Amino acid sequence: MAGYLKTAALAAIAAAVAASPAAALDKIRMVNSTKVVFETEHPYAAKENGIFEKYGLDVSIIHGSGGAASLQAVITGSQDVVWGNGVLGVVSAYSKGAPIRVLGSNIRGVPDLYWYVKTDSPIKSFKDLKAEHEFAYSRPGSTTNLAVLFIKEALGIPAKAVSVGGPSGSRTQLMSGQVATGWSVFPLNKNLLREKKIRIIGTGAAAAALTGTTIRVIAANVNWLEKNRDAARRLMNALTEGQARTYTSDDQLKAYAKRWKLNYEDIKSAPMDTPLNSSTFLPVAGLEKINKIALENKKIKKLLTKEQLHELVHPMGNKPI
Amino acid sequence: MTGSFKLSKSPVLVGGIGVAVFLCVLEIAVETGMVMELVVPRPSDTFLAFPPVQEDMDLVGNFFVTLGMTAASTGIALAIGVPFGYFLYRNRRYGVAYEGWLAAAFAAPTVLLYPLFLVIFGRTYLTLIMMGFIPGAIPIVIQTRQGLLGVSQTLLNVGRSFNVSEREMFWKIQLPSAVPTIFTGIRIGVMYTLVNIVAIEYLIDFGGLGRIVSEMYFRFDTPGTYASIVAVILVSVFFYWGFGRIEKWLRPV
């Protein structure tokens, strides 16, 4: 009788283990710093198409409210990985001793940013911006602020840079006539473009000096990374597959449109608006330039040393050699 | 026992000792790693952060910007809130009709309406003042009405027995009796006003101390963030102390 019970108990345990495949998967908590933007779609593609599971991962994805808050969640260890955080914030936090490491580049340059005016505006392109015009950016020290400064320098634009907050605040202020330009990121506001309420006057590609420089990154808590090096590597490989799917699958684009309640017609061109060659996870490029920009923008008190920059980047989850 | 009796005679000292003990415990907790330094800095580091934040962002100047915005909002809230509260007291049917709506409006997160205010008033100080005024005025209206409704009937009867005029009845009996309740509304109102103004400054990166908190936070300068938060607390302390003094002046007993 006892032998029978023992066999039954073992069988029950085996059945329970077999019935819960997630138990065998490595759990990773990811915080996505920005919603809707095209390059934030890759983790969803990996999750919804079983790619994470294929790599033995169970990844939860939550949304943070912007870069600093999302990064804070990883620094404190309440999340393991942050997706799409501004590199300046990461460099700034690292310089203050934050346990944070970069796993890969999220985007190089700012090709996905664009500036627009109301359709009836006399401004046709960046070059039409005069000293009396406001050249919108989100907030001081942000990616858009950098882009505006670099565009002004590259094209010799005299317009004054004005902080207007996020894309929705920017749109409100432009449409109510308080500022001459608005900023956005593809595919946001594409409906207004389609309805011919606004007109694009230029994109972040004009910030030529930022081309090829990593602007947003994927980063992880170093304490988590040291204990889960293999899981981090598998995560990056899974994300690479997820990214490939986002760029090549029409179904994934439809899922993207459905998730954020976007018009499919508005996001069809998203893979062209954010070209794949700017959003591959490697290389993490131009950190020396970012180091200097961070100092100029008071994000760091002194330049990071070569050794610190080397320590900061763990390409694709691997320890820097 | 004698010692504790003496301490109870000096509430300011007791409060100061409590804060000092809390700061010492926090200093030790951060020093020993029990509290993460990147999230909460050592109190000593926060103290040392004042000069650099002042040099970089003009903390004192911005302290007065936020103080001025809060004072302006509270002034408008008082100028409109007290008479409106009196109106609702005198016209009981309106009072009954609107009190529920006012309470509901007070509970609403009006701070989320900032894009609308940006459209109406632009990226100006007027947006901050108006967004501070709304949550400040509502408790003043409600508490003014409640305070006047709560005036003892005996006191009113005594006034009537002396044949006092309506004006005298208000200034000599009703208002002094209602002052504690009205000031409760004012204190609540000024705190909500300050919170709203600092929140909007933080959100739209414009104005005084909220903008500095935001800037320091985005730089991951934790001592600088806390130093600017301490400055916000000082604004709050100033108003709390100031209205306490005014209340005592209006109702010395």
The most extensive interface, with participating residues per chain, is: A-B, 26 and 22 residues
> What integer value in Å does the Rg of chain B equal?
22 Å
Number of strands of chain B: 0
Spatial extent as radius of gyration of chain A: 22 Å
Following the backbone from N to C, one meets helices and strands of chain A in this order, namely HEHHEHEHEEEHEHEHEEHHHHHHHH
- CATH arch. level architecture of the largest domain in chain B: Orthogonal Bundle
Quick one: biggest sheet of chain A? 5 strands, mixed
The share of residues in extended strands of chain B comes to under 5%
| CATH fold title of the largest domain in chain B | MetI-like fold
Task: Give the overall shape of chain B, derived from the CA principal axes.
Answer: globular
Question: Structural class given helices, strands, pairing of chain B?
Answer: mainly alpha
**CATH homology superfamily name of the largest domain in chain B:** MetI-like
Protein structure class of chain A: alpha/beta
Distance linking N and C termini of chain A: 60 Å
Instruction: Kindly report the spatial arrangement of strands forming the biggest sheet of chain A.
Output: 2-1-3-10-4
Tally the structural domains of chain A.
2
Describe the fold and architecture.
The complex is a heterodimer of chains A (321) and B (253). With 321 residues, chain A is of the alpha/beta class. Chain A has two domains: 22-108 and 212-317, D-Maltodextrin-Binding Protein, domain 2; 113-210, D-Maltodextrin-Binding Protein, domain 2 (3-Layer(aba) Sandwich), CATH 3.40.190. Chain A contains 16 helices and ten strands. Chain A has helices at 2-19, 42-48, 51-54, 67-75, 87-95, 143-155, 167-175, 190-194, 222-227, 229-248, 250-259, 264-267, 270-273, 276-279, 287-296, 306-312; strands at residues 26-32, 57-63, 81-86, 100-108, 113-118, 134-137, 160-163, 182-185, 198-203, 214-221. The longest helix of chain A has 20 residues, at 229-248. Chain A is globular. Chain A starts with a helix and ends in a 9-residue tail after the last helix. The relative contact order of chain A is 0.18. The mean pLDDT of chain A is 89. With 253 residues, chain B is mostly helical. Chain B has two domains: 2-35; 46-250, Orthogonal Bundle (MetI-like fold), CATH 1.10.3720.10. Chain B contains eleven helices and no strands. Chain B has helices spanning 2-8, 11-31, 43-57, 59-90, 92-107, 114-121, 125-149, 153-161, 166-204, 209-218, 222-250. In chain B, helix 4 packs parallel to helix 7 (125-149). Chain B is globular, with a radius of gyration of 22 Å. Chains A and B meet through helix 4, helix 5 and helix 7 of A and helix 6 and helix 10 of B.
